[in-house]
Specification:
single chain; alpha/beta; OB fold (Dihydrolipoamide Acetyltransferase, E2P); Rossmann fold; six-stranded parallel sheet; 23 helices; 19% strand; binds adenosine-5'-diphosphate; binds magnesium ion
Length: 698
């Protein structure tokens, strides 16, 4: 999804876009590319590829290395091998039955022989010419004397491309089709020099040209070239990301329109039903001192699940109210918005502060009325979902914007909300326990307050890891808790939200509700339900009308059902540690002792190690560090945990050095041109727009 600008070759590339040539061959529709056509173009659309440039940026997910074949003798039986040899003889085709023809040929490497077996593909067979040399990739079977390789991938031995790309595919496309098509697309680069980043930067950072990078990311000459190419593309992506983030921040960089005065909020503290922890007080003080400065606060309040972030938000909202400013709190789901609305009402209404709830499910009339009261300044605290960022939502004097569970929002959405005020203060609350170093990278120059202390009297959640054999006992344990009047969660992972997996979760839920738990009310929550249905079920659970909530991972982040005292997690090996920690944070929110039972039917050594960590450690930050050690950073940042645009090739945690360098460059560029509107930054601005248009969270 890059935009490419051909630079003016003869002018020594000094102007990337000065010529204003935007529509290059690379922007032409993929359907005109040789080997594509209208039908296949539709398949490519599914991969997000609509232009030739898009295809060039459809990077391989891995590579097949034909550069170091083994001898036929050394080929490992029953495994995939790469071998090289000469065709000695093509044997006659054997028709086994209708629709099944077997082709065979004998290949030698002058040391031993192997039989190539090809099913049904005369086309593949005809590639093999007696006397010629080939490289084959495929599973080798047989015994030490007689070996066979069936349906191998065949390459001419003298081929230039010995490292073959393996692409993410979709129905209707094959690897070999994609390879040929990408090769055709690469021809578009011939004789042209394309560039996206300023020449000085490329020189300073020792980056290869974009042409080289694209050629070698697809068909690397060797692994060194591949890594040089990758560095370049990773750099581009980070630079774009950095520029985008800084540009977004830049919007709220100026002076704030809501400098606040040093008013006391002691009456708020006095009204609380509990004493705040020191960590909560510190976070509040950080925020208040930010808000008294002349420029907008930009602070992340990070605290483990249950650390009491809502009270911090309430205190800040109270402070803003006393300064005559409105506060908007945005939550990622209706149920969370509802919950915050209730909690904040408890905290703030006693002081005569008007508060309202704005969500998508309100009737049009209701919405209009509420929006009216927001605009008039009648309500001071507004809790809501994305409805808050709708164009028609106008504020009177928005001074503080709080977003909860921020990784669920795109950065853009957050920025949109702050644009509704006059440079309001921003506070982000997150329970995602990201190690500090990584947090700094993601959030850049956001200030961070960490709530590293739990309210007094909180009992740690006792966690057990068991195998499937113990399931019955675990259910017995759950029933005991139910008899004591508690409620329970049972979490079943769905790797993909597909029908098959959903079916099995439904069956599971049916089965346990008819057997073990037939005397109890079992509810089922999954991602295929409409938001309204989900909310209704969650609400029933909150109200105590459901005893056991069977749920896929949609069980909402941050939902507070203090009466839920036990959670069973099935197939717990499928979850990352941090995710398990988040999940188990749904229990242990009341005064009762709470339990989490991790079940696995696949107790490998690795898995046991991981689950042991869960039963030993209850600190989310420590767990995330362990998680990072065990899984590596790549996984940690998987699945859009951070609300940043989806990166294609760069890895936030792996490519840290490139990230650092790219951020340095981004800062320098933005300093000189905060809105990226200078002509020499035009191609970068386009890249930023492209990248951020991919931020599709929610
Ligand atoms: P989270 O940080 O996960 O959003 P919440 O704000 O939902 O946590 O707080 C969890 C629970 O702890 C709530 O029921 C809240 O009322 C309670 N709580 C918050 N702060 C304190 C405190 N200092 N002492 C006792 N209970 C507290
Ligand atoms: Mg919360």
């Amino acid at each position: 999804m890059y935009m490419f600008y051909p630079s003016n070759n003869t002018a020594g590339r000094k102007s990337l876009n000065g010529a204003g040539v935007m529509n290059t061959k690379l922007d032409s529709d993929i359907k005109y590319l040789k080997g594509v056509g209208p039908k296949r173009a539709e398949y490519y659309q599914k991969l997000g590829v609509s232009t030739v440039a898009d295809l060039l940026c459809h990077y391989p997910r891995s590579y097949m290395d034909f550069s170091s074949p083994v001898s036929i003798n050394d080929a490992m039986l029953n495994e995939n091998n790469i071998i090289k040899g000469r065709i000695v003889k093509r044997l006659a085709a054997a028709r086994i039955r209708r629709g099944m023809t077997i082709y065979k040929a004998v290949m030698t490497d002058d040391e031993s022989d192997i039989t190539i077996v090809i099913y049904n593909s005369e086309f593949a067979f005809n590639r093999l010419i007696e006397g010629r040399e080939y490289l084959l990739y495929g599973k080798v079977t047989g015994n030490l004397v007689r070996k066979e390789i069936s349906s191998p991938i065949i390459l001419d031995a003298d081929t230039a491309d010995k490292i073959l790309p393996v692409y993410p595919l979709t129905e209707g496309l094959t690897q070999s089709l994609l390879r040929t098509t990408v090769q055709n697309a690469l021809k578009y680069l011939d004789g042209e020099i394309y560039e996206t980043i300023p020449k000085e930067i490329a020189a300073r950072r020792g980056l290869c040209s974009l042409n080289f990078a694209l050629e070698n990311i697809h068909f690397p000459k060797d692994f060194l070239s591949l890594s040089i190419a990758k560095n370049r593309l990773v750099f581009d992506e980070f630079l774009t990301l950095g520029l985008g983030m800084l540009k977004l921040k830049g919007r709220s960089r100026g002076k704030t329109g809501c400098k606040m005065n040093d008013v006391s909020i002691d009456e708020f503290y006095d009204g609380l039903p509990f004493k705040l922890t020191n960590a909560q007080l510190n976070a509040i003080n950080d925020c208040i001192s930010d808000m008294k400065k002349g420029y907008p606060m930009n602070r992340l309040v990070q605290g483990d699940v249950g650390s009491g972030k809502t009270a911090v938000a309430a205190a800040c909202a109270f402070f803003a109210c006393k300064n005559g400013c409105q506060t908007a709190l945005m939550a990622p789901t209706e149920i969370l918005a509802n919950q915050h609305y209730k909690t904040l009402s408890d905290f703030l209404v006693p002081f005569g502060i008007k508060i309202c709830l704005l969500t998508g499910s309100l009737t049009a009339k209701n919405k209009r009325e509420i929006k009216e009261s927001i605009k008039s300044g009648e309500v001071l605290v507004i809790v809501g979902t994305h409805a808050l960022v709708e164009d028609s939502t106008e504020f009177d004097n928005l001074g503080l914007v709080i977003t909860d569970e921020q990784h669920r929002f795109g950065v853009e959405q957050r920025a949109n909300l702050s644009n509704k005020g006059n440079n309001p203060h921003c506070m982000v609350m997150s329970a995602t326990p990201i190690p500090r170093t990584l947090a700094l990278m993601i959030y850049g120059d956001l200030d961070i307050s960490i709530i590293n202390e739990f309210p007094k009297g909180r009992k740690p959640i006792e966690t057990f890891a068991i195998t499937g054999k113990g399931r019955e006992r675990a259910f017995g344990f759950v029933i005991q808790r139910l008899k004591e009047g508690r409620q329970a969660y049972i979490v079943c992972p769905m790797i993909e939200e597909n029908d098959l997996e959903l079916q099995s979760v439904k069956e599971y839920s049916d089965k346990i509700s008819r057997s073990y738990f037939k005397e109890y009310r079992v509810g089922l929550l999954h991602g295929r339900l409409k938001p309204k249905q989900k909310d209704a079920i969650m609400q029933e659970f909150k109200n105590g009308n459901i005893d056991i909530l069977v749920s896929t991972t949609v069980v909402e982040v941050g939902v507070d059902v203090p009466n839920a005292a036990v959670m069973v997690i099935e197939n717990s090996e499928r979850f990352g540690l941090s995710q398990l920690h988040q999940l188990r944070g749904r229990v242990g929110r009341g005064s009762e002792k709470s339990y989490c039972i991790l079940i696995t039917d696949n107790p490998t050594e690795e898995c046991v190690k991981r689950l042991k960590i869960m039963s030993k450690i209850s600190d989310g930050f420590k767990i995330s560090e362990e998680d990072l050690k065990l899984r590596g950073p790549g996984d940690f940042f998987g699945s859009r945990q951070h609300g940043l645009p989806a990166l294609k090739i760069a890895d936030m945690a792996e490519d840290t050095e490139i990230l650092r360098q790219a951020q340095e460059e981004a800062r320098a560029i933005i300093k000189d041109d905060p809105t990226l509107s200078k002509p020499e930054n035009k191609s970068l601005a386009e890249l930023v727009d492209k990248l951020f248009s991919r931020t599709i969270d929610n």
